Amino acid sequence: MARTWLRIRVDLRGGGGIPCDPPPGRIFIVGPSHSFADVAEAIDSAFARWDRGHLHCFEMADGRRNGYPDDAFGLDPGWCDHARLTVVREVRPGDAFEYTFDLGDDWCHVGRVETEKVDPVKEYGQVPGAPVAIWGWGAIPDHYGRDRPDDD
Fold it and tell me: Three-state SS for 88?
């Protein structure tokens, strides 16, 4: 393909006092127009996040952060807006980053851009409109540590 698509492996290290050892993971394909906000939504879906009212952020290997750039949320105003940054412009094959879901419970995910670029039609069967998980493994813990529907 003429336009760059990336494969990104994301492993969940744990959060909310729940370690993930071994970490469950997912492989995503991410296209040239997809933002970090799009990737956050894909990660949250693939890791069974149903309560999406929590803040999240990405931290790049060089220390740059992106997420919600709104002071009303109490975040550093120096953060970049994750809806405006496209992934393929900010990371290269071999780069790593962290994604944290719920800045209170700190569900930490480690992402690494794989070295091979991909053709989304070969990997997924079509060109997806958003980043998608194409492979995964491991058990995903409940965000609140619940084991049953009646567990408070």
Answer: helix
The mean pLDDT of 44-53, rounded to a whole number, is 85
Query: CA-CA distance, 120 to 7, in Å (whole number)?
Result: 10
In contact, 113 and 87? CB cutoff 8 Å: no
Q: 87: domain CATH number?
A: 3.10.290.30
Q: In whole angstroms, what is the distance from residue 75 CA to residue 10 CA?
A: 24
| 152, part of any domain | no
Contact 108, 114 (CB under 8 A): no
Straight-line distance from the first to the last Cα atom of the chain, in angstroms, rounded to the nearest whole number:
49
Q: What is the pTM of this model?
A: 0.90
The tokens for 51 are: 């309560």
Q: For 95-100, what is the mean pLDDT?
A: 96
